[in-house]
Predict the structure.
Amino acid sequence: MKPRFNYRTTSPHVYQAMMNMQKADSGTSLDPVLRELLKIRISQINGCSFCLDMHAKDLLKLGDYQDHIVLLSVWREAPIYSDRERAALELAEAVTRISEQGVPEAVYETVREYFDENEYMELILAINTINSWNRIAISTGMFPGCLS
C-alpha cells in the first residue's frame, strides 16, 4: 500500500494554504481536548484513517482519554461527554454532513447555550479545517504510517 503521490511536494502552495488554515485554527481559544474530539469524530464520519489515527494519538498525549476515543462514535449514548462537548459534536456532525439538512436551528441554539458567537466561529473553523484535511488525505490515498 502506498499513497497516490506526495501532495506536499507536488503542490507546496496547496500545502501552505492548508497550513495557514491549520495555524488559524490552532490559534483559537478552543479547548485542545475538544478540538481533538472534533477532529476524531469528523474523521470517523469521513472515513479518514490517516487523520483518525493521528488525532487519536494526539488526544492520548493530552491525558487519559482512551474511553473518550473508544466511545466517540456513540457519543449520544455515552455519559462521559459534557453537555458542552455534546453541543460541539452535534454541530460538527451537522456541518460535516451539511448537504443533508444544513445546520438545523435547534443545533445552532444548543451550541449557542455553551459558545458565544466568536467561539461558534472558532468551532466552524476547526470543523472546516479537519474536513479539508480529511478530503486531502482520502483523495491522495494517505493511510496511518504512510509518512514514516
User: Anything to note?
Assistant: The CA atoms of residues 33 and 134 lie 19 Å apart. The two ends are 13 Å apart (CA to CA).
